């Protein structure tokens, strides 16, 4: 299996040659054994068999949106084919005999269809059922099996979102030896839809606004799963002082009764070794989906950090009354992140965040891997993944490399009650699938007011962000949370509702750079960034919260100016970095890692991953001693 396949949201996907299959089904076959290299775009491993449905699908554009009315799910004469995964835009272009993505206005509705043979099931799979999973698909997805509308495990007839996976349990009574799978995908330019830096009615393509890529953007697969099981999501919250690990588990139950959740923790080095810790948790479970937090002690546990990215392997089993065990596996690390005074502390030690802004755009999975290694070579210990959905395996890579991650919710482009509802739903979906990773330390709710344009004056917008910040503090204390990155942070009764006070500062002039940094560390909240740094009621900085320059540089982008020659750019970066480190600032994020569309300010070749500037350029030495 080709692990360089592109399997992530907002990506121009490429055909996976080995798994390309005809939409016409053959005789029933057994599911192939899962590749130990984790070929599926998910972070948690399930030791079962799967069958990728990637490859050639029948394809049609529903120009007038008559497909539902005319019953296309019951049968339709498709005139085109498309490679799944791939973007709607590329599929529409291919259907028209074009090579470039097709821009669409207002709304797009497309249909996909293929057949698959019913996999054989042996005696050992008597406890199992067939599950269909979409790695990501959006923004609005309906799925039919043999003409029957399916519901997701969460009970949705229409799934909304395009950045996370969702699954369907396939009812035995509607499965045939040969099965027809039909998918309808719809999207609009609606500014209330979370879309990050993709174009919309409000923000058109050009400059920092990118070509829209939507639709069938990640793999889709069949797999046998147990009727009663742990779902493929594990939350990890560690308390390093007490050597405790809290695991958030999600159970899917069809047969109510008594169960045992058994957790075993192994060292990363050897799968054959005895577990370092084992613990059982008896539970009485009704039918449905349940979330449960359980706690284990790991005496003598090593902590995870960029300098020593030590990981443990969790084997979690749900054991029924007959002794049958359904199992998942995940890697995790113990670490603590804290914003304290002027600085950020990792595992109770002060750390300076040497960051870089990263926008994967249409990069393939293999290219993203090369970019991560290159960012590490640049001397970065932090990567800010900028309002985009990426292949979940990338978070595993960051865990292994020791790269800290700052992730963000793809933002809507207007501030309304509905856009906030969509934003919260996207956040909850993302967090539920991403809270395993020690590498993820920071979440941004918004960036530069996108989707919260009235943040300075609208109490409803401010209250939503305050409530969401409080929710994240309570439900996910393993993360730092930024309310609105860049400026317009919210103060409520004099307390900043952001763990970090961040500023976006762009200037190519060294003297102006020194002036802006001096204003920032003096706590001058107005006149430093493009807009006031704090809104709401008065907030007095007084070194209460760490300062981060979370965007700077951008040298080579026309709107920001500065050097475009690589040698001069490297020298300017060194100078600007020295000024940052001479002040009580907790970290910085250089803009940016690679070129993307109109933004020609990258330090890394987008295809090869080679550096255009010297290695170690963004690294800094130990932080200066705090002033007394």
TrEMBL record:
Biased composition regions of type Polar residues, renumbered to the chain: 1-10, 20-32
Alphabetic keyword roster: Glycosidase, Hydrolase
Region named Disordered: 1-42, 600-628
Domain Beta-galactosidase jelly roll, chain residue ranges per copy: 105-187
Pfam families tied to this protein: BetaGal_ABD2, Glyco_hydro_2, Glyco_hydro_2_C
Protein name: Glycoside hydrolase family 2
Lineage, top ranks: Bacteria, Pseudomonadati, Bacteroidota, Cytophagia, Cytophagales
Domain Glycoside hydrolase family 2 immunoglobulin-like beta-sandwich: 240-335
Family: Belongs to the glycosyl hydrolase 2 family.
